[in-house]
Amino acid sequence: MWGTRFGTELWESLTRATRRDEIQKGYDSHADLTVKEIDGFDMVKRMAAEVQVMMQHKIDAIKRIMELAENIALDHKYDKDRGERLKEGRYTYYNAKKLNVLSDDDEGGGDEFGRYLSQYRDPGDDFYAPGYSRMSLTANKHFSGIPVNTSFSSVHVPTNVFDGEPKVINAIDWSRKLDETFKDNYQRDPSLSWQYFGSSTGFLRQYPAMKWLMYEDDPDMYDARMRDWYIKSAASPKDIVILLDTSGSMTGLRKEIAKHVVLNIMETLGEDDFVTVLTFSDETRPLVECFTDSDGEPELVQATTENIAEFTEAVNNIATMEIANFTSALTEAFTLLERYRTKKIGAESNQAIMLVTDGVPYTYETIFQEYNQPHKPVRVFTYLIGREISDLEAAKWMACENKGYFTHVTTLAEVKEQVLKYIPVMARPLVLLRETHPVRWTGVYADIEELQGKEGSFKGYKLMTSVSIPVYNKKNHTVRIAELL
User: Fold this and answer.
1) Do residues 124 and 184 touch, judged by C-beta distance below 8 A?
2) 3-state DSSP call for residue 123?
3) CA-CA distances (angstroms) from residue 278 to 199, 338, 368?
4) Mean pLDDT over each residue of the chain, to the nearest integer
5) For the ranges 21-35, 409-423, 441-455, which has the lowest average pLDDT?
6) How far apart are CA 447 and CA 228, in angstroms?
7) Three-state SS for 398?
């Protein structure tokens, strides 16, 4: 009876390993100790209810931010000269990159706070500097030991965004009125972590205020519009087919720009999205050969970190040759999206084709009539690469006639900003409803815990999730527009 013998040996082994006899003696010698049976199902129900209350508090907080943002943007008086006043030092804001900064020739000594550059000084002061400001920051355990000021918010402006541009600086100006709501949310729910307002113009307003550390050997590449929480709220889930021109003319700088366009599109995708990249010259092929179905046909894959990594590796190794066959490429892309649409697989929401090329010879109107008329279920975005392009009309027609957007990308520096222009277009169906504000949660991710600015201060990772909600421009226009704030 090997089963009985095995059971006995297992019981005896576990008894010794867990010291069951000693534990039992402890219970026997203390008559006041009892074993109480716990209803596991009831315990899980209570835990779920507590988590639901906690999550609802977070949702209520972002709804208060959203409602105030829409109202103050509605009442804001646009000032086209505010950017000039910023340049001249007659207007400023708490720029996180220019907060508590010492001059390049600082010699130390005395109170460091007193040596910080600031616009809020007399113009004759040695430490007077337009655009700079100083603020008392205190290390806060709740924010991983990072020095913060819970009375204010600060603004991060990406490297590729100019804060003097009128639309940007006006949004920075009206959004400062969110501080009172940020503080109120934190007082109501002290378990709240960072609160953000991510503007479609590019800047990020962050509460509490903090200094954004800059390093010479590590340029600031952060852009809130590329973060998962922003993308999830800004646009619905989507099926994307990227058509990458790999014909013989796509060489040198054109090839590099095209690769960066594809990579930046990938950065805007989340796990709710499905994507594939098809390269085309004389033939159309999947960029990643294994992303095909059992019949060898291209398929969309979920935009997970692992799949994006596969695309990234493959796009860095593309070769260019032959002549571009746009008919084959467009037909393949439309056929693939139609298959997903009719079978109700993939994202089951928005669909788009992203065409990345250095030239479109014709409009290929018959293909669009066959596959995208009359309802135009697929948006078409065209990214025309290179400076020496004289004919832009065909590429413009493709995008404009198919509810998309045309972009001419001439340098590597402008790639990110040009790619991001597709997001508000994809958001239009949602924004036009105006009253519908879907709440979106990100997946759980690991946030680094450290004492910011102290080398070797890494403490570990803290698991987090973020909740976000879209904020709409509700101003009335002669022509109804759909615009995210």
Assistant:
1) no
2) coil
3) 32, 16, 18
4) 88
5) 441-455
6) 14
7) helix
With CA atoms as reference, report the closest residue to 151 among 118, 116, 186: 186
Return the pLDDT at 138.
92
| pLDDT-based confidence at residue 122 (cuts at 50, 70, 90) | confident
- Rounded-to-integer distance, Cα 462 and Cα 312, Å: 28
SS3 380: strand
- Chain centroid to Cα 370, Å, comes to 35
Give me the phi and psi of 360, to 5 degrees please: -120, 115
Look at residue 442 and tell me whether its pLDDT is greater than 80: yes
Q: Are strands 350-357 and 284-286 parallel, antiparallel or unpaired?
A: unpaired
> Which helix H or strand E contains 41, and what residues bound it?
helix 40-75
Record the tokens describing residue 293, joined without a space: 């179905």
- Residues 462 and 145: their CA atoms lie apart, in Å, by 13
Closest CA to 409 of 373, 382, 436: 382
Residue 134 CA to residue 379 CA, distance in Å, equals: 47
Q: pTM to 2 decimals?
A: 0.82
**Tokens read off for 245:** 């021109």
**3-state SS, residue 410:** coil
Reported as half-sphere exposure (CB side, CA atoms, 13 A), residue 341 has a value of 18
Torsion sign, CA atoms 66, 427, 279, 382: negative
Q: Which two tokens stand for residue 467?
A: 């909740």
The CA distance from 153 to 180, in Å, is 10
Report whether 61 contacts 185 (CB < 8 A).
Answer: yes
pLDDT reading at 119 higher than 70:
yes
Rounded to a whole number, what is the distance in angstroms from the first to the last CA of the chain?
74
Q: Per this entry, what is the length of the chain? A: 485
424-428 long-range contacts (CB < 8 A, ≥24 apart) are 424/200, 424/234, 424/482, 424/483, 424/484, 425/379, 425/381, 426/234, 426/235, 426/236, 426/238, 426/350, 426/352, 426/379, 427/234, 427/235, 427/236, 427/470, 427/482, 427/484, 428/482
Specify the residue for token string 């129900």: 45
pLDDT band at residue 18, thresholds of 50, 70 and 90? confident
Contact predicate 469/438, CB 8 Å: yes
Is it true that the peptide bond before 361 is cis, omega within 30 degrees of 0? no
